[in-house]
Every structure is written in C-alpha cells, then in structure tokens.
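Table S7 (text form). Paired inputs.
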Amino acid sequence: GWRVLTADLAAEAERRDLAVRVAKQSLRDGLMLASHGYPAITLPRLPTKWNLPPLEAALVLGMIRQESAFRGNAVSRASAQGLMQL
C-alpha cells in the first residue's frame, strides 16, 4: 500500500528518518515494515592508531534509532546533537 511506497521513497531519497517515522506509524496500525523501521547504514571505521575493537553495528544502529530516529540534524533539550546525540 501507500505506506510501503512512502517508506521506499524516503529510503531511496536517503531520508531514513522519514522511513523510520512511516514504519513506526505503520506498526501502530498493525503493518510491520522492519527494513524501514530498522535501517542499516555503513558505519565509519575507527582509525587503527586508536587500537580499539571494531564498532558493534547492531548496538550503534540501535542507539541511533532510539536517540535521533536517524535525523542527522537532531538536537536534544540537553543540546546533544547528531545521530547518536553525543
């Protein structure tokens, strides 16, 4: 239906925030759009000179979804900014 098409269009336009929003509303109405509700993005690699283990993608993506719903320009009431609200 129209929700799938809307979420597809948002994802194609790289507006994952809108795709997540449509997916959340759809779930409230009984339609699950898992791939749009939980988008996967390529995470940056940490510089090897930092000697840190690789990022756990599921944890990072879950945090992004919870904190900003993939809105890159999100700003919290506490002035935290960006996808992960750091």
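Next pair, protein 2 of 2.
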Amino acid sequence: MISGSISKEHFHILVSCMSKLSVFKLVQLLEEKTSRTLQMKFKDLKSRDL
C-alpha cells in the first residue's frame, strides 16, 4: 500500500503490486483479507443482515 484515506463509510487506497498479479486478483485478495479481518474483530458481522 502506497497511501490511503478513511472516512466513516468507505476508504480509498493506492497500491503497487507485481506485474504478474491482475487487478482483478489484487482486488479479490484485498476483499478476502478485509472481510476476514473485520469478521474476526467484529464477531457479530456474520449474523447481521447488511
């Protein structure tokens, strides 16, 4: 991650990655990691309808 900003409802990040990694795969990996981290930190996220 090169830089980022966070607001109440969303965030922006600027990343650099290996040229072998597609943008799609990078976004997929970021979403998986973010989801896993949030679910571990906030255990009730899985059971709530968002």
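Strands lie at 3-6, 11-14.
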